[in-house]
Write a sequence for this structure.
């Protein structure tokens, strides 16, 4: 569905799925998202950082599941019935992100995406591709590549 | 078929032809008088030339032509093969392979060595040089006089004979752009030729179909040539015509043997085989080349029909079958959970299902399996080049070429093997003078062997050189701060220092093996394939590297175990026995090291949960089951796990494709309930446990 949806919008239009993690609003471009699943227990991996919850069976493929909140240093995601795993593909690998809850689909014009201003933490700036202002709330666009990069770096 | 795909096919065929060429050349070395081997080499070169001509690859054609011409003189007994010529042939083979590669990739190749070789080759041509132009008519090359070889069939030494050739083209012959007249011209060069056209099938003019093949010819040729040579004239129209060549008055010697190959000369084997049909394998069996003696002799010469399939298709099939196995396990588990009162029938059917699924899987895996022969053959060039570069003399002996290994393994082993063979010559072998002094054959031997042993593939690279100089190795390692100054290391431990990153034994960096690529790279490559590498060395006798690889990369037999409440799998191949120990058999040494006595000897215990950093739920004296494993580098060790549930075949799923490697874990698998279980790597686990102490092996 993601591809069909992507084609339906004009070139300058972007669609995002917004979700909350660690009490903050984030979003991911819809074309990067493969599916959204309910949380099911995962197989834990030894010798991995806290934000790596483990691996999950996605129709025969073994994919790692990250706690996005812990990843961004916002503490572990509390267990909740609304918790979901967003399965996303980036640079040929498939990963799952545990988030608190998924909110809505956001359709915005390219111009509505603002660059991240200079903030105190470089790491935080790197993990966010930009910001979108929605009804006075701020939604952060997750830089999926950065999630993966630092991950492999930390675990190796 | 587009031009490009035809071109691709040509280069695919070139690969096969080059393989046949290399094999033929090494056989020539063993049995230079075997005319069939010479023929095979000639044909390989000839076919490459033929194909290259069609694509206008002039350099390739030019070189192949010179090579072929000299080869033909050998074939015609005008030239005897000595060591020097053999060396030139080998180098020509290498050059041809480089030319093919550069033509395929459309890259430039330095002409120096090519020109030098052509010159050397032409040196052998003498008066014959330039006698024929290089076109497809090269089949007209002269055989010279009758061939006088003991083993050779009588047919080859008979003088002039009269051949009756019945030739009836099919429509396809014309459609493929062949012209009978050219074939007749080629035949006419062998001797007086009489051609009669059979016009009896010519229909009335009204019914005449200009696209149909109607005419047939009967030809009478008086010549000293062999029947094989005559067949060569027709080799590019094989399958496109009905052909019958008979010696006048004798029984038909050749009829159905012309394979209905849609492409002219698809592989060199059928042609060789066709030639052999005339003289039932006499030459081939009489002289089994020693190199191939260990394998079912000569089986590879048979023209087994093969099928070229896109690798992606095979891999898709393998994946699907993997899913099938998981699915089968899931169904079994679900049915068990149902707890039905009478399940006897169901169990039987399930068992049958399981066996069938396994059969399918084995069959599918066999598609990917390939003999290691081409890989080993490639090494003969490495040996040649390396020994030239180091001024050492070395020969390559291969054993077990027909051992089949997964294609991926073969591809991924090429680089490590190349490196190790170079190393063996550069560092392993002594100079000819030194070897002579030591009372050894000045020509060193590099032995490559492959074998299936207890569910694994063993590949050995052995040299008969001086063996490892452990003193130097240890000194180097200390110099480079790889081990502490006062380290007391056992011999195997010193040998294993070679695998440390950044270790190079060469005093000065030679341009051959010292390229900053160390044995650690080799080790990593082998480990990435799920294998291990070990080393053993005897001073004065040589060094042997042993690579042990799993048979397949897709499935394995494992024990399903529990470790700290997690389900995991451990490969069955690594487990020697399982022990449920008595508490009094377990002894504590120091603060936390435990030993278990197994029939009188003490074996260290490694707690799997501990080394994986998993929290054990229960306190107090640890119970559980011990799995006795023997590892290459760590010796006998007992692994403690909570319990063993089951033994089953599991499908190996890579962790690295979506995540990174995890120490102590080699891969993952999917259990019957759809959950993922980690597959443990015993050797790494033990190293993890030891990593708190002196760290001989670097952690990833």
């Amino acid at each position: 569905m993601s591809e069909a949806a992507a084609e339906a919008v004009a070139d300058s239009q972007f669609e995002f799925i917004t979700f909350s993690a660690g009490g903050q609003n984030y979003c991911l471009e819809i074309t990067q998202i493969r599916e959204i699943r309910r949380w099911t227990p995962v197989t834990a991996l030894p010798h991995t950082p806290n934000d790596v919850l483990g691996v999950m069976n996605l129709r025969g493929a073994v994919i790692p599941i990250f706690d996005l909140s812990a990843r961004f240093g916002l503490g572990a995601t509390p267990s909740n019935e609304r918790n979901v795993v967003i399965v996303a593909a980036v640079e040929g690998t498939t990963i799952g992100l545990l988030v608190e809850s998924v909110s809505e689909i956001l359709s915005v014009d390219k111009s509505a995406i603002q660059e991240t201003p200079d903030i105190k933490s470089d790491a935080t700036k790197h993990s966010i591709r930009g910001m979108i202002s929605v009804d006075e709330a701020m939604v952060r666009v997750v830089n999926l590549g950065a999630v993966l990069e630092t991950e492999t770096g930390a675990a190796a | 078929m587009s031009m490009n795909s035809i071109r691709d096919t040509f280069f695919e065929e070139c690969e096969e032809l080059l393989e046949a060429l290399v094999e033929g050349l090494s056989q020539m070395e063993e049995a230079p008088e075997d005319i069939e081997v010479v023929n095979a080499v000639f044909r390989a070169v000839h076919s490459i030339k033929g194909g290259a001509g069609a694509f206008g690859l002039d350099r390739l054609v030019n070189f192949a032509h010179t090579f072929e011409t000299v080869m033909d003189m050998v074939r015609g007994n005008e030239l005897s093969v000595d060591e020097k010529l053999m060396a030139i042939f080998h180098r020509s083979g290498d050059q041809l392979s480089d030319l093919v590669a550069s033509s395929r990739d459309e890259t430039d190749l330095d002409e120096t060595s090519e020109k030098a070789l052509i010159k050397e080759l032409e040196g052998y041509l003498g008066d014959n040089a330039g006698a024929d132009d290089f076109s497809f008519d090269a089949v007209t090359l002269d055989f010279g006089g009758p061939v006088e070889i003991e083993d050779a069939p009588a047919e080859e030494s008979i003088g002039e004979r009269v051949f009756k050739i019945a030739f009836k083209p099919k429509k396809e012959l014309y459609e493929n752009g062949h012209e009978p007249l050219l074939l007749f011209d080629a035949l006419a060069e062998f001797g007086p030729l009489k051609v009669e056209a059979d016009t009896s099938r010519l229909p009335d003019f009204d019914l005449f179909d200009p696209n149909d093949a109607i005419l047939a010819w009967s030809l009478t040729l008086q010549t000293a040539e062999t029947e094989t040579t005559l067949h060569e004239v027709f080799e590019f129209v094989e399958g496109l015509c009905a052909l019958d060549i008979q010696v006048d008055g004798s029984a038909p010697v050749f009829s159905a043997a012309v394979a209905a190959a849609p492409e002219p000369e698809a592989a060199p084997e059928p042609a060789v085989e066709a030639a052999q049909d005339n003289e039932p394998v006499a030459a081939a069996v009489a002289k089994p080349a020693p190199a191939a003696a260990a394998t079912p002799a000569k089986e590879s010469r048979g023209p087994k029909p093969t099928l070229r399939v896109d690798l992606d298709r095979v891999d898709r099939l393998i994946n699907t079958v993997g899913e099938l196995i998981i699915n089968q396990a899931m169904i079994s588990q679900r049915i068990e959970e149902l707890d039905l009162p009478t399940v006897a029938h169901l169990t039987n059917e399930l068992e049958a299902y399981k066996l069938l699924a396994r059969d399918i899987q084995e069959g599918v895996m066999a598609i990917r399996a390939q003999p290691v022969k081409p890989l080993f053959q490639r090494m003969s060039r490495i040996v040649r080049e390396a020994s030239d570069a180091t001024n050492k003399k070395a020969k390559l002996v291969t054993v077990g070429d027909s051992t089949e290994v997964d294609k991926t393994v073969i591809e991924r082993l090429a680089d490590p093997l190349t490196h190790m063979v170079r190393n063996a010559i550069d560092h392993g072998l002594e100079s000819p003078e030194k070897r002579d002094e030591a009372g050894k054959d000045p020509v060193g031997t590099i032995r490559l062997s492959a074998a299936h042993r207890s569910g694994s593939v063993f590949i050995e690279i052995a040299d008969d050189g001086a063996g490892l100089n452990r003193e130097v190795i240890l000194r180097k390692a200390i110099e480079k701060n790889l081990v502490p100054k006062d380290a007391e290391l056992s011999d195997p431990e010193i040998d294993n220092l070679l695998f440390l990153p950044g270790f190079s034994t060469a005093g000065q960096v030679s341009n051959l093996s010292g390229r900053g690529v160390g044995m650690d790279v080799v080790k990593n490559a082998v480990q990435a394939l799920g294998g291990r590498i070990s080393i053993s060395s005897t001073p004065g006798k040589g060094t042997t590297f042993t690579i042990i690889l799993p048979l397949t990369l897709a499935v394995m037999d494992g024990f399903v175990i529990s470790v700290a409440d997690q389900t995991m799998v451990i490969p069955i191949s690594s487990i020697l026995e399982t022990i449920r120990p008595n508490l009094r058999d377990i002894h504590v040494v120091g603060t936390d090291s435990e030993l278990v006595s197994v029939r009188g000897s003490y074996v260290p215990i490694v707690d799997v949960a501990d080394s994986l950093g998993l929290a054990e739920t229960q306190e107090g004296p640890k119970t559980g089951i011990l799995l006795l494993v023997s590892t290459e580098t760590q010796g006998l060790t007992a692994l403690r796990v909570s319990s063993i549930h089951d033994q089953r075949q599991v499908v190996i799923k890579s962790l690295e494709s979506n995540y990174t490697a995890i120490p102590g874990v080699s891969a993952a698998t999917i259990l019957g309930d759809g959950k993922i279980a980690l597959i443990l790597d015993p050797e790494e686990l033990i190293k993890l446990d030891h990593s708190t102490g002196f760290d001989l092996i670097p952690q990833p």
Observations:
- The CA atoms of residues 27 and 82 of chain A lie 17 Å apart.
- Chain A is about 20% helix and 45% strand.
